Structure formats: structure tokens, C-alpha cells
Amino acid sequence: MVVKQVKHWLVTRANAARWRPIQEWAEARGASFTQARDGSGFLIEQPKALPGPLRVEWGVSQRSYLPGTELRMRCEMGLHPDLQTMVLCRALMENLERAVFEAYTDTLKTRVDTDTPEEMRWLVMFPKFNNAASQIVRQRYGVVGVTKELTGAWIDGELSEALAQASQDLLPEGHPFVLMCMRGNLYLRTEMAEADLSRVQALVRLLETAAREAQRVNARLGDTGAWPTTTSIAWTPSTRPGNI
Question: What's the structural domain count of the chain?
Fold first, then answer.
């Protein structure tokens, strides 16, 4: 027991020193930094962040498609519940589509189970948006959403430029990455073997860009989720809330 306690203390102390730059950056933003009890990860919480309260975690992955450790973020925004869009690494999209197909054809299931993560269910439920203005975004990312009109409004513009820039070094080709707008919030997940300050900062900026663009689109949605258009849009019902 004593040996185990000493080992835990050493690990916690070593990680505290390793993550000191991240902690100092978080505290400079007015956020709290908390190390996990077992020393295997950390949590950053910034209740007064803009455009919404921010939560950043690094630790053991909560998704099977992200091996090892991940960085996950959530920005609480109170957006319209019908604002449901997702952009992800194209290679990951293809892998998830294959997994969904195999899981629900081999077992002769006729619907996607609600226990399946939204990332996988949305690939079946929602239409793909293949007309992004940026050629880099079309090549490197897959984009889906409740309607193509709504998805296009979110992805094209400042977010498209940020994604194209990120593809050069922050999110190299094939690197697992998911960015989602759902349940009124923005969520980001990506594989990250080691927590690095520069990458954490860059991903937070990417999430903030996506959040600002979501606010812009949200401002054009009516109380019932009606999107300004000359044709009618059949809105897909909001997906059942789940964990992320």
C-alpha cells in the first residue's frame, strides 16, 4: 500500500510539473485547472468564457475510435436544438461508416441503436454536405447536418478557413477529429497522445471559431427552427441526448 501511494505521489508530482505551462495558461484565462485523482489527466473549467462556458479535458479516451488518450472540449451556448451539424476527419468518417454498416447488417438490425454515439448515428441519419467552398475542406473532412442548407451556412466562411489552416499541421491527414454542434452546445474530440500547450491553445481557438459561426447561424433560426429559404425544409427531429 505504501509503495502504491508513493508511486501515485511521484506520478502526480511529475505530471504537475509537465502540465505547468497548460495550468498557467488556463489560470491566465480565468479558468480553473484540476488534475485527475489518479494523475492520468486534467480538467480545465472556464465558466465566464466567451462565446460560452468552456470545459477542456485531457485523459483516457471515452470513444473506441480514439485510441489511447484524447482531448475533449465543450462550449455551452444555449443554441437552438435543431442546430445539429458535424465535421470530422474524412478517414474517420469512412471508418465509422464502415463500422455502422457492418454492425447493423451483420446482425440484421433495421435501425441504429440509441446507444450508438451520435457521431456514428448522424452519418446514417443526416445528409452529407459535399459542396464546401474550400477544396481542402472537401478533401480532408466529412461534413453532415440536419439539412444541407444549415450545414453549409455553418461550415463555409471563417470556420472553413480555420479548418483548412488546421489541416496543415494541427490536424494532419488521417488524424482522428470530430467537431459537433448538438444539444445547444459545441463539442470537439481529437486524439492526443501527450497534452501539449500549443496544440491545446490551437484547438481551443478552433472550437471558439466554430462557436462564433454557430452563433451567427443560430441568429437566423426562428423559434421553431425555421431556416430562411424559398423552399420548405423538413427538419429531422433532434437526436436523443447522450454522453460526450
Answer: 1
Classify 135 as helix, strand or coil: helix
Q: Is 112 exposed, middle or buried (0-12, 13-18, 19+ CB in 10 A)?
A: middle
Q: What is the mean pLDDT of the chain?
A: 85
* Dist. CA 49–CA 54, nearest whole Å: 6
Separation between Cα atoms, residue 147 and residue 124, nearest integer Å: 13
Ranges of beta strands (E only) in 129-169 are: 141-145
Query: pTM value?
Result: 0.84
Asked, for residue 131, whether it belongs to a domain, the answer is: yes
Percentages helix, strand, coil for the chain (3-state, rounded to 5) are 40, 20, 40
User: pLDDT, tens digit, for every residue of 159-168?
Assistant: 999 999 999 9
Beta-bridged to residue 44, according to DSSP, are 33, 56
What is the domain extent for residue 99? Answer: 49-218
* For helices 20-28 and 2-18, angle between their N-to-C axes, nearest 10 degrees: 60
Enumerate residues 6+ apart whose C-beta is below 8 A from 215. Answer: 51, 77, 79
